[in-house]
Amino acid sequence: xxxxxxxxxxxxxxxxxxxxxxxxxxxxxxxxxxxxxxxxxxxxxxxxxxxxxxxxxxxxxxxxxxxxxxxxxxxxxxxxxxxxxxxxxxxxxxxxxxxxxxxxxxxxxxxxxxxxxxxxxxxxxxxxxxxxxxxxxxxxxxxxxxxxxxxxxxxxxxxxxxxxxxxxxxxxxxxxxxxxxxxxxxxxxxxxxxxxxxxx
Length: 200
What we know:
Layout: E1 21-26, H1 34-45, E2 49-54, E3 57-58, H2 61-72, E4 76-82, H3 89-103, E5 108-112, E6 121-124, E7 128-132, E8 136-137, H4 138-142, E9 146-151, H5 154-167, E10 171-173, H6 176-180, H7 184-194
Parallel strand pairs: 2-4, 3-8, 4-5
Antiparallel strand pairs: 1-9, 2-6, 5-10, 6-7, 7-9
Helix pairs in contact: 1-2, 3-7
């Protein structure tokens, strides 16, 4: 894993409360999936840990490979998704298959059970974080108009990660072995829903 600086070295006045923030947008009218590219770069640049929260979890090949590669290289990759139904069953069913796939590579997935999780965040190594409207799903990355703020600030990244760790108290970890024992009909249903992933 190569070391990539998160942002250029700069002299910061300790009494200056200025926080560097970058705004990224993406949508169907852009030839670049800017937020997906941001997430991929952040994940593969991680040296220690990756924390992600999203109510939906439907990956494309790029994000699947980034998460799996990070986990297999020794980075602690933690993903938190909502355990509560979203109201649209298809994304929930499809999401089960993606969770099973990345857990097999060493990613840890946590199901938030205290209400419906609506946070959409990513934080890397207590150095950089992003908060915005983007779900971890193909629709958000490619079809919807989305906006994210990228915050280059250790203090805020640590606060976000502290909130993530507090939320773990209300989570159950996704167990791929338990999922594999679910009825064949349920797993076939989930796999069929996955075929519709680009539309979910």
